[in-house]
Design goal:
alpha/beta; Rossmann fold; 2 domains; 5-stranded parallel sheet; two-stranded antiparallel ribbon; 9 strands; disordered N terminus; P-loop_NTPase
């Protein structure tokens, strides 16, 4: 069944956006095999399928994942199956994809899903038969507006249609209640970085520890729990924790937890560096000291999405708000966007260089995938 999913703004503009030749024994076998029979068989359409194979082989993530063109040919059925699922999810015609649509699906979402599957298999192989296996927790650290929520949505869908039980969380789900946020604001008068939710200090870390600990225990059928959710529209956009009656319920045994956030993996840095970026960051830097034990230590594998310039965040947010206004929906003015993003840019400038050079604290380099994206939110070869 196709699943409808839409969101205001520019984040999914790739859906509406209306190389080299490889030859191998595997692709020839595939063209003559069962997948060939599953698709229309006119010469033009068969040729387009071969073109798709070649397009997949040109993807910028393949070398990072250790995938050769031969390996892709041998597993082409999986690539096409996952791609078809995503086309149905986003209501795209799989036979007539534009280059941006093909890039998003076959150069990004499917390779990342295969990477996640590989991490799950290696993780689960460490346990003996009959042992309870806690879900693998994959952290997605990526700046706002770069498409991580859509990526996680697509991965969660693929896990479900392939028989994996998955759960999704965002660091947004752990924001203080409206009352807690007001107390934070009152305790830090004049600090624009803590006036609204977002930076370190605006999260209920006890709730995150409780939630992530409980998720790791969902190893059997019948064990259930509710996942906290946050309502950003409450109190005229200042936000509040959603009523527990609206929290989604998950049941074990969970295979994987997808945990995403714009500041996952950020760690404290020398105070003189912080002050040089923005003196208001000093208290934020101090608050970060408690975040490793509340978030990062629960994460088994990491996807770190890198951007070349933090100003992309402003551009992406501006695109989203303009699109919302053009659609007749409430959206921030250009000045409001500038003010909103300005409360996050100091943290990006302070913490992203260390995250990109060292990786998240306590992480195993073998379990960290860095993906650098361009202004169009698609992976590029650098990084």
């Amino acid at each position: 069944m196709p699943v409808h999913f839409s969101k205001s703004g520019g984040e999914y503009s790739w859906m509406q956006d209306n190389s080299r030749h490889q030859s191998s024994s595997s692709i020839e076998k595939w063209k003559q095999g069962r997948l060939h029979l599953a698709l229309p068989t006119t010469p033009a359409q068969v040729s387009s399928v071969e073109d798709l194979y070649e397009f997949i082989c040109s993807g910028p993530l393949l070398s990072k994942l250790g995938l050769s063109t031969e390996m892709i040919g041998e597993s082409i059925d999986k690539w096409l199956s996952y791609g078809l699922r995503l086309c149905r999810l986003f209501q795209l015609n799989e036979l007539y994809l534009t280059d941006p649509q093909k890039a998003r699906i076959y150069h990004y979402y499917v390779p990342v899903f295969l990477w996640c599957e590989d991490k799950i298999s290696k993780y689960r192989s460490q346990f003996k038969d009959g042992e309870d296996i806690p879900p693998l927790v994959i952290g997605f650290s990526a700046p706002q507006g770069c498409g991580k929520t859509t990526l996680v949505f697509a991965l969660d869908y693929l896990f479900k249609v392939t028989g994996r039980k998955s759960a999704t969380l965002s660091i947004d789900d752990f924001y203080w209640t409206a009352e807690g946020q007001a107390k934070l604001r009152e305790a830090n008068p004049g600090n624009a970085l803590l006036e609204f939710r977002g930076n370190a200090g605006s999260h209920d870390l006890s709730l995150s520890i409780e939630t992530l600990t409980a998720l790791r225990k969902l190893t059997k059928e019948g064990i259930k729990m509710k996942l906290p959710r946050y309502d950003k529209s409450a109190y005229n956009g200042r936000g509040d924790r959603a009523d527990p009656s609206e929290w989604p319920e998950v049941e074990g045994p969970l295979t994987v937890v997808l945990f995403e956030g714009w500041m996952l993996g950020f760690k404290p840095i020398p105070i003189e560096v912080v002050k040089a970026v923005d003196p208001q960051l000093e208290i934020v830097n101090k608050n970060l000291e408690a975040y490793y034990d509340s978030w990062d230590k629960f994460i088994d594998a990491w996807l770190v999405i890198k951007i070349q310039d933090p100003s992309y965040v402003y551009q992406w947010r501006l695109q989203a708000e303009i699109a919302m206004r053009e659609a007749g929906k409430p959206g921030m003015t250009d000045e409001e966007v500038k003010d909103f993003v300005s409360r996050y840019l100091p943290a990006y400038k302070a913490y992203l260089p260390t995250l990109y050079s060292e990786g998240p604290k306590g992480s195993d380099p073998e379990n960290v995938l860095f993906v650098e994206i361009d202004e169009g939110r698609n992976p590029i070869l650098a990084g």
